[in-house]
Amino acid sequence: MKITSIELNVIEMPLKDPFLTHLGAVNIREGIIIKITNSDGVSGYGEGVAFSTPWYTEETVKTSLHMLTDFLIPILQKNPIDHPSQASRLFSSLRRNNMAKAAIETALWDLYAKSHSQPLSKTLGGTRSAIPAGVVVATDSATKALAQIDQYLQEGYQRVKVKINPKQDYSFLSEIRRFFPDLPLMADANSAYKLTDLERIKALDDFNLLMIEQPLAYDDILEHSFLQKEIKTPICLDESICSYDDALKAIEFGCCKVINIKVGRVGGLYEAKRIHDYCFEQGVPVWCGGMIEFGISRAHNIALASLPGFSIPGDISSSNRFWEEDIITPEVNVQNGLVAVPTSPGIGFKLNKKRLQEVLQWKETIVF
Ligand SMILES: [Mg+2]
Questions:
Q1: Which of 34, 125, 237, 319 is the most exposed place for a label (fewest CB within 10 A)?
Q2: Catalytic: 232?
Q3: Active site residue: 122, 163, 229, 354, which one?
Q4: Are 68 and 37 in contact (CB under 8 A)?
Q5: Degrees (nearest 5) of the Cα angle 68, 314, 267?
């Protein structure tokens, strides 16, 4: 993989509607689009999915840029690699900063797949030709949620996830279930509860949820294992799973029955695949989580979700769920509840250069 240059593009785009959780609102999304070019002139793309502020994990767009320019790119300059999995091992010399690592590691996978004229899904071992699509409803009232759910069901989405917290749970979910009794529905708490809220969480067993995602602390393993024994609803861990080792512990200790795999949170596709492979062996279903991302990250998610263990519809929605116009062409489009897995080399989507220019805030090219 003879790299000749790496281009970093910081972009910024407003969301069509604010994305609300108990941790705050996302109205404008910043992101980093990375282009790695090799000596044959082939380019691979990756996306940094850290937010502008550290509300979801400790990383931000700024910390990612610092890691990329001062540490991760210099590692690649000093250590030529033949395969993206080697990058993952080299980057393990640096603690965490998983989203910065994933931003560059995913670009290497796209470049590798394109250099071998292979779709990225095949390079990773994917078996699906289409992926069932799910969508997140992140709003602050049942009325708004009902209207959005109605719209998304008309668009063909197969699973809906809503955001909950102690101020918006039982009556909110009752209202949704009143209108949509059979909807495949799940609830994400983003760590809004404590173990002392046990009775409150137990009550949510009434709603036949597919799962409850990350009810307790973002870095907890232990208390989720107590909670899972007390409730019928399967627990899915998101924020707590930052590596293969985290997934191993969570499953061994009975902390969850489902895992949400996010490429950025676990440091790249190599680690995401390791987690998938382990869960598949253990019979633990996984699904691919979203980060309010742009099209490049969405394309990597589609390739990953083509692996056989991704048996639950993830947060893979159409580009138009968040954006007036995405930075890829064609845009991701849900049809009859499915997203087709591309068959062209690499991620199978092209960069929309005109759109990138419109939303570009800052750019730097590092020549090798
Ligand atoms: Mg989540």
A1: 125
A2: no
A3: 163
A4: no
A5: 20
User: Mean pLDDT, consecutive 10-residue segments, the chain of 368 residues?
Assistant: 97 93 91 98 98 95 98 97 96 96 98 98 97 92 95 93 96 97 96 97 98 97 97 98 97 97 98 98 96 97 97 92 96 94 98 98 97
Say how many Å lie between the CA of residue 262 and the centre of ligand 1.
9
pTM for the structure as a whole: 0.96
Q: Please give the distance, rounded to the nearest whole angstrom, from the Cα atom of residue 9 to the centre of ligand 1.
A: 26
Q: Give yes or no for a contact between 263 and 286, defined as CB atoms under 8 angstroms apart.
A: no
Could you give the domains of the chain?
3-117+350-367 (3.30.390.10), 122-340 (3.20.20.120)
Rounded to the nearest angstrom, the distance between the alpha carbon of 239 and the centre of ligand 1 is 7
- CA of residue 364 to ligand 1 center, whole Å: 32
Which residues share a beta bridge with 31?
Answer: 11
Strand partners, 328: 351
81-86, Cβ contacts within 8 angstroms, sequence gap of 24 or more: 81/1, 81/108, 82/1, 83/1, 83/112, 84/1, 84/108, 84/109, 84/112, 84/268, 84/269, 84/270, 85/270
Among 35, 101, 114, 262, the active-site one is 262
